[in-house]
Amino acid sequence: MRPGESRRDFESRARMRLISGRLRVQRKKFKPLRHGVFLVPATITSLGLLAGFYSLISSINSHFELAALMITVAFICDSLDGRIARLSRSSSQFGVELDSLSDVVAFGVAPATLMYTWALKPLGTIAIVICGLYVVCAALRLARFNVQTGHTDKSRFTGLPVPGAAALIAGCALAYSYFELNSPRTLCSVTAPMTLALAVLMISSVPYPSFKATIHPRKRAQVELMAGVLVVAAMFLAMPQFTLFVLALGYVVSGPILMARGERIQKLPFLHPLESEAAEASAEAVEETDRDAPPDSAPLH
Fold first, then answer.
1. Neighbouring residues of 114: CB distance < 8 A, sequence distance ≥ 6
2. Quick count: other Cβ atoms within 10 Å of Cβ 125?
3. Which end of the chain has fewer beta carbons closer than 10 Å to its terminal beta carbon, N or C?
């Protein structure tokens, strides 16, 4: 960014350079990737899809703890595939579509099936409606995410992410099994409104924290961050089922808390999803060009 230049002018100049084809300078800095690199994120996504399918089979066979565990495995795969794709510069529209289809199964259909067979089956038709509504809202949430990619604030999610909702359902099942509870009526009366609340939060405009952006904590906060990580790690070693439930519940509640504090989703200028990563690279190229250029240099002809 040039001295005295507003951020709006900087973003406009970056967009103009993207449109005029100046991105070729950025492309020259990297060597072409081997085709095998693109298989790694797709393989991890496929593993998450298989974990979601196995969760379905386990729920049908009344192996509820195993079904919840498979949703957790799918959650880990979903966290890894996107990061690996960005680090290896192998992001593609194919990977985005495959990830969305995998999420519908692993975080939409599988948690709804687990909730129906484990807790809501005594409600009969009402349980089918509640779980079906959860699946529809999960699909709508994923479709909205794909459409909004590139023109929303990346530090916040719009609505509860589908993996977060699935993690809370899996955490509930694991915690229920860990404490060896046996109260079907209480379980049904608690999980029914919880499933409806998760469905509504997914399609809402409630802001949720996004951990995709790089965070640079203050030096003084690094000790606090390390202490928090150690506490969470110790809890996972001592009682992993209950820890997953607490973390998932904390994340689900964090959205309404942010909204109550006055936070809203900031919309950025519209950019097609396929161009979002190119825009980021173009902005970096513009910034590097401005930093290397002399302040009062005349344009070359």
1. 55, 59, 64, 67, 68, 71, 169, 170, 173
2. 7
3. C
Q: What does DSSP assign to residue 301? A: -
What count of other Cβ atoms lies within 10 Å of the Cβ of residue 33? 11
Contact 245, 172 (CB under 8 A): yes
What does the longest C-alpha to C-alpha distance in the chain come to? 80
* Bridge partners of residue 209, in order along the sequence: 156
pTM over 0.90: no
Please name the residues in contact with 174: beta carbons below 8 A apart, sequence gap of 6 or more.
65, 68, 69, 72, 240, 241, 242, 244, 245
Closest of 262, 85, 264, 74 to residue 157, by C-alpha: 264
CB count in 10 Å sphere of residue 188? 16
| Phi and psi angles of residue 183, each rounded to the nearest 5 degrees, phi first | -140, 80
- Given CA atoms 89, 90, 95, 99 in this order, what sign does their dihedral have? negative
Residue-wise burial string across 210-244, b where 16 or more C-beta atoms lie within 10 A, e elsewhere: eeeeeeeeeeeeeeeeeeeeeeeeeeeeebebbbb
- Token representation of residue 48: 């998450």
How does pLDDT run along the chain (301 residues), one tens digit per residue? 566 666 666 666 666 665 555 445 444 444 444 555 578 889 999 999 999 999 999 999 999 999 999 999 999 999 998 888 888 887 788 888 899 999 999 999 999 999 999 999 999 999 999 999 999 999 999 999 988 876 666 788 999 999 999 999 999 999 999 999 999 999 999 999 999 999 999 999 999 998 765 445 454 557 777 888 888 888 988 999 999 999 999 999 999 999 999 887 766 544 444 444 554 555 555 455 555 555 444 444 4
